[in-house]
Write a structure and sequence with these properties.
With 287 residues, the chain is of the alpha+beta class. The protein has 10 helices and 4 strands; from the N terminus they run H-E-H-E-E-H-H-E-H-H-H-H-H-H. Strands 1-2-3-4 form a 4-stranded mixed β-sheet, sandwiched between helices. Helix 1 runs antiparallel to helix 6. It is globular and about 60 Å long.
Length: 287
Amino acid sequence: MNISKLKKKRLIGIKSIDKNNQYSKNSEMSEKKLVETVKIFFDIKSDAEILTNKMLPSFNEKFSNYYAFQPDITLLNYKLIFEYDGYLHYQHPFDIEKDRIKMQMIEELGYKRIRWPYFFQLTKEVAKFVFNNLVNHFTRKQLDLYSDEKFYKAINKIYVNPITHKPLTRDDYNNGYLFAPGFHTTEEVPSSFHNKGIKRFLDDMEWECNRKNDGCTCNGRTPIELKHQIIKSLNLYINDVDIDFKTDESRDYVILPKSDQRFNRFYNSIKLEDKYCNFFYPRERKN
């Protein structure tokens, strides 16, 4: 037999997504979609109410010796910034350090910032967490921005059904066709994060209001549903990673930063419950 004609194995690989779960690239959140989402939940009627990729007012007056950064979204009336954080904000030490400096400058200019990690999607629980809990926490107001009407309007505008490629409807959402929060096709999984990026990820996963004694009434904490959805997406990755070619052992370390004790505690603390995971996972293989 000519061994060269046999199918060769990759040294390391991840199984491709099931053909039945091929999906549209418009199925996940992006910076542009976050702008539309913020406009809907804040009832933005005029471009004068929102800055996108523009320098903060008075930046040059206070920090004239620095190049100005341009936040993704600035709501002037609320002194509030939203930014979509891609994977480099978890991986690259320069990006992580720039974020630290930017946060100090933002606060000196009188603004607060809400970050949207690239592994978040706009579920109902995330929408309530961000647009009620986090907004009220950082603005120190008692706004009631969330409504089901706004939520369904937002998902219909920014998402498509991953199978039909048509705008996502209320029925699509209730039937589990919203892309799940988590990691699905990217290679930028937690194992690739800088140690400070791992801390940032865990801070995202374990956020809880720390101003209760200071009069904050937001009662905010990272939704338990989100934690389950993220862990499920990671487990699906682990299932799809080739086993070691000599020992047949799991290569979960390709996906998880197993040397980080805090991450291990978080990961092992979640005992998956299906009731939290009624979303679309492209790596999920139906029997």
